[in-house]
C-alpha cells in the first residue's frame, strides 16, 4: 500500500471546517493511499518538519521508501 503524509499549519489542518487542501486531496486519490493528516492550527516550521520526519521514520520500519509520499504546506518564515 502507498502512504501519503500531509502536514502544515492551519491551512493543512484536516479538522478545519473550512475544508483545507488535504480534504480535497483525499477526495481525489480515494483509496489509492493511506493518508496521515499531521497539519495543525498555529504550528510553525519546527512542528511541521518534526511531524513529517517522525511519521516517515515510523513508516520506513515496515514500508519501502518508494511507497511513502510527503506533501507539506510550509508556514511563514517568521514562525
Quick synopsis:
The longest helix is centred in the middle third of the chain and has 16 residues, at 45-60. This protein has helices at residues 21-29, 45-60, and strands at residues 2-8, 33-37, 68-73.
Entry keywords:
single chain; 79 residues; alpha/beta; three-stranded parallel beta sheet; 23% strand
SSE blueprint:
Layout (H helix, E strand, L loop, with lengths): L1 E7 L12 H9 L3 E5 L7 H16 L7 E6 L6
Parallel strand pairs: 1-2, 1-3
Can you give a write-up of this model?
The chain has 79 residues and is of the alpha/beta class. 32% of the residues lie in helices and 23% in strands. It has two helices and three strands; from the N terminus they run βαβαβ. It has a three-stranded parallel β-sheet with strand order 2-1-3, sandwiched between helices. α1 links the parallel β1 and β2. It is flat, with a radius of gyration of 12 Å. The mean pLDDT is 88.
Structural class: alpha/beta
Q: Within the largest sheet, what's the order of strands?
A: 2-1-3
Residues in helices, as a percent range: 25-40%
So how many helices? 2
The separation of the N and C termini measures 35 Å
| Largest sheet report | 3 strands, parallel
Estimate the global geometry from the Cα principal axes: flat
Amino acid at each position: 500500500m502507498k502512504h501519503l503524509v500531509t502536514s502544515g499549519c492551519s491551512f493543512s489542518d484536516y479538522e478545519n471546517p473550512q475544508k483545507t487542501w488535504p480534504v480535497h486531496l483525499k477526495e481525489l486519490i480515494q483509496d489509492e493511499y493511506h493518508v496521515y493528516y499531521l497539519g495543525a492550527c498555529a504550528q510553525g516550521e519546527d512542528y511541521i518538519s518534526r511531524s513529517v520526519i517522525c511519521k516517515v521514520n515510523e513508516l520506513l520500519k515496515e514500508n519501502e521508501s518508494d511507497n511513502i509520499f510527503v506533501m507539506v504546506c510550509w508556514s511563514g518564515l517568521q514562525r
